[in-house]
Amino acid sequence: MNNTLSHEERDAFKQEIFHSLHCALPGNIISFDPDRQTASIQPAVKLGSVSYPVLTDVPVFMPMSFEINPGDACLVIFSDMDIDNWFETGETSAPNSSRRHSLSDGFAFVGFKVGGASS
User: Which are the contacts of 5, defined by CB distance < 8 A and separation ≥ 6?
Assistant: First the structure.
């Protein structure tokens, strides 16, 4: 019995993995909670005609304070693992789940000038 995958099967398997792996996406701020420094973000790309869901409770990287408004551009990067325990406590701990590169585990970087918008 031959267990070797064909070139086409390897490519299909690789594409399936890549489509489920989330590393970084551009997005737009829907709302921002300045007390928690978290945002709801609409990813600014589609998969064909399908939009990504709004990402909620995304920690926002803010090395200095500035105003964040709905419609502001951002870049969302996704953690290798579930960030829930760390985000709630700030302590080193085991992940809450086996999630990897999930849309639930994003961090937002804001402050980009896009689309000719003035700062």
Answer: 13
The whole-angstrom separation of Cα 44 and Cα 61 is 19
Give me Rg for the CA atoms of the chain.
18
For 15, the 3-state DSSP assignment is helix
* Of the candidates 96, 93, 99, the residue with the CA atom closest to the CA atom of residue 81: 99
Catalogue all structural domains in the chain, each as residue range(s) with its CATH number. 23-110 (2.40.50.230)
pLDDT tens per residue across span 1-21: 567 889 999 999 888 888 778
Residue type, 115: G
What pTM did the predictor assign? 0.72
